[in-house]
Amino acid sequence: MLATATLALPADTECDTVAVGLFEGKGIPHDIDGAMQALVDSGEARPSFRHLAVTHAAGKRLIVVGLGNRDDLTPERLRIAAASVQDRARDLGSRRLCWELPHKVGGEHAAALVEGTSLSAYRFDRYKTPSAEPRPRLHDLVVAAHDDHAETVRRALLVSEAVNRARDLQNTPPNDLTPMRLGDAALALAAEHEHLEGEVEGREEIEARGMGCFAAVGQGSHNPPALITLRYDPPGAVGPVLGLVGKAVTFDTGGISIKPAKGMSEMKFDMSGGAAVLGAVDAIAGLGLPVRVVAVVGATENMPGGHAFRPGDVLRASNGTTVEVLNTDAEGRLVLADCLAHAVMLGAERLVDLATLTGSIVSALGVTHCGLFSDDDAWAQAVGDAGSRSGELTWRMPLHPDYADLLKSQTADIVNVNEARKAGSIVAAEFLRKFTDAVPWAHLDIAGTAFESGRPYAPKGGNGFGVRLLVELAESLAAA
User: Which domain holds residue 268?
Assistant: First the structure.
């Protein structure tokens, strides 16, 4: 889909469909032959949020969407409204849609229209037999406004496309998206952008680096693990080196501590943190942001093969920490441990890791907020603010020595899980904290927000959660 901005009135564009928002107590701006106001007068169009009404005039389809109270308008509400309009426009066979941006709003609202439209138009149909009558798809979006939002629209489309590419990775079945194939996707991404270099290392290299925790998780699989590293170093870069670390367990059976069969098919999404990191680097490099990035993605399967690691094993991470394994289904933190240490070794000066790490965070926060854990107040604020601006919401959770004490082991330095199942998400974060070497760090537990979140612009499958947040964060570093 293409997206552009115009200063022309919607009626003067070549779009076949025009969308206009209706607020409570307000009329229709720039009506076309009085057709939309007639919908309002008849009661067919109403300001109730997301209510849709359709008419025709001057050779165009006209969609009026309710936006509720003007004072309640936020970028997120516009994303949702744009998703509703896109769905209706698609059903009407529209190919070119013009959205009239509500008056007296900022560029973030223009961006929201693009994001809501592009993200809701996404379809993952690679494995479906082509239909004799394929469903129509929107080809062009035009945002009409009194101010020039061309650059805002360009940025929003680029970021949305990066989100959708991350969703492609999430939705690809695990027999096709093995760890090494995820590595191939990362290398292809690096080849697309200037100043971006990629490297993929396999089982032997991971073991040679002393990454005993990461290596152990992949032991039970015939498909080798992949340590994926991307370095983005543009000229004129400013600010600290941003380290992005993603968990990418391309399929998680739980290993020897095997999961129940029900819902196990969703474990292809256990690589969502890695997909978000790759999508974010794609957008950061595509935008040419002047910020240095080191991205590390640990890709592996967690399988119960004859070589699988076991409960009771003791592993040694690359920073020398020994870990007693109590449960092989707490594997993501083992992968991240070595990847975080690796990012620090590569020079990361600020860290963010993303992982579908614990079911506990889903119980605590559901699908609205991801869990944010951090050992640095200023960095936590920066990450949380980026989430608020992007619409990918975070909720800060506590860290405390009492929670870290729950990781004590009689055999090794620490255990990989608290078997008493107390404060599961917090204890997992305290585990990760031991591998950050005092670098300001934030952990995003996205288990509840990464897929099947029900958002109108991404209701099913992977939703690329974290890409928009990380891009906002990188932009804030570049502007500091």
Answer: 168-479
